[in-house]
């Protein structure tokens, strides 16, 4: 699997309105969203996102459709935002303009981010691309994968409405992506395969939440562990998984799925990690607060 990262960072100054006009942002409240539209593979191949339109909503509403430059800069006022990549885009190799390269957007769309005064903020869209020889696009990996889905938040477990940062998410849908650069597998008793990943990137979409942004930042670089359990008649169960940052006391847990799926087994009857879809009960714990909900899950190496 090959991943392309199109990043964005927030810095500082003026503004493009959605009608093409401009207006001034006071410097003390300003930030600048930068959207790089190219990425270079380790082998030297440059890929470019073409025909992209970004719809930014929040403290300001801005539509970015002039994406001819290698990097688009959008000055923004400080505050919470969502950014959506509209349909109509495609990927090209820089040395073969006009020829689309198959690519799939993996990130939740829209993504959320917060512009803060004098603070650089990064946002990135992640794509799956075909292989480029032995090179990988955007990140240096030999193998990798992702687990994605949507959590329907059912219960918030804070200590009260005034100190419950997750209460606003109840009855909302939160798309998520857990992507990892590499993974290894091992066998466990009872016909289970354990999958241990390399460092992960976690993204949340949908409802804006600075708390979820903080959780995603805290879990970045952690390891994701999950299991695949052999079931009857060639079926496989998702055995659950978790990511945690013990120093920050943050845990994201997915419990065993309720829907077995057709899987592949090795010669000794242990599940192989192949694309699958299932359902899970999901919990996020941030010290003594958090939320619970049901989620659909899809994963692929």
Please name the defining characteristics of this protein.
53% strand; mainly beta; 301 residues
Count of separate DSSP helical elements: 1
Tally of distinct domains: 2
How can the largest sheet be summarized?
Answer: 8 strands, antiparallel, barrel
Task: Encode the helix/strand succession as letters.
Answer: EEEEEEEEEEEEEEEEEEEHEEEEEE
Rounded average pLDDT: 81
Terminal Cα separation, in Å?
A: 7 Å
**Strand arrangement, largest sheet?**
16-17-19-20-21-22-24-25
What is the gyration radius calculated from CA atoms?
20 Å
Fraction of helical residues: under 10%
- Give the DSSP E fraction (strand runs of 2 or more residues): over 45%
**Count of individual beta strands:** 25
Low-confidence stretches: 7-25, 132-142
Overall structural class, as computed from helix and strand content, comes to: mainly beta
Describe it.
With 301 residues, the chain is mainly beta. The chain folds into 2 domains: 128 residues, no CATH class; 156 residues. Helix content is 3%, strand content 53%. It contains 1 helix and 25 strands. An 8-stranded antiparallel beta barrel has the order 16-17-19-20-21-22-24-25. β7 and β8 form a beta hairpin. It is globular. 35% of the residues are buried.
């Amino acid at each position: 699997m090959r991943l392309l990262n199109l990043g964005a960072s927030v810095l500082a100054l003026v503004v493009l309105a959605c009608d093409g006009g401009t207006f001034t942002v006071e410097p003390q409240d300003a930030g600048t969203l930068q959207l790089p539209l190219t990425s270079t593979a380790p082998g030297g191949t440059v890929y470019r996102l073409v025909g992209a339109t970004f719809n930014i909503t929040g403290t300001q509403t801005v539509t970015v459709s002039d994406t001819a430059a290698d990097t688009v800069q959008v000055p923004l006022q400080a505050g919470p935002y969502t950014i959506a990549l509209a349909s109509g885009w495609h990927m090209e190799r820089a040395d073969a303009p006009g020829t689309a390269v198959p690519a799939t957007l993996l990130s939740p769309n829209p993504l959320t981010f917060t512009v803060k005064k004098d603070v650089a903020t990064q946002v990135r869209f992640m794509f799956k691309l075909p292989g480029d020889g032995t090179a990988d696009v955007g990140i240096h990996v030999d193998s990798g994968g992702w687990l994605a889905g949507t959590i329907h938040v059912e219960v918030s477990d804070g200590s009260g409405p005034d100190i419950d940062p997750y209460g606003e998410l109840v009855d909302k849908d939160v798309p998520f992506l857990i992507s990892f650069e590499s993974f290894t597998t091992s066998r466990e008793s009872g016909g289970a395969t354990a999958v241990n990943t390399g460092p992960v990137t976690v993204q949340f979409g949908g409802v804006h939440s600075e708390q979820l942004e903080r959780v995603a930042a805290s879990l970045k670089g952690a390891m994701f562990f999950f299991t695949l359990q052999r079931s009857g008649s060639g079926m496989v169960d998702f055995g659950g998984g978790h990511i945690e940052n013990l120093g920050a006391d943050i845990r994201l847990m997915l419990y065993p799925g309720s829907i077995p799926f057709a899987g592949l087994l090795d010669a000794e009857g242990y599940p192989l990690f192949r694309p699958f879809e299932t359902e899970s009960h999901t919990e996020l714990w941030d010290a003594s607060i958090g939320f619970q909900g049901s989620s659909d899950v899809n994963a692929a190496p």
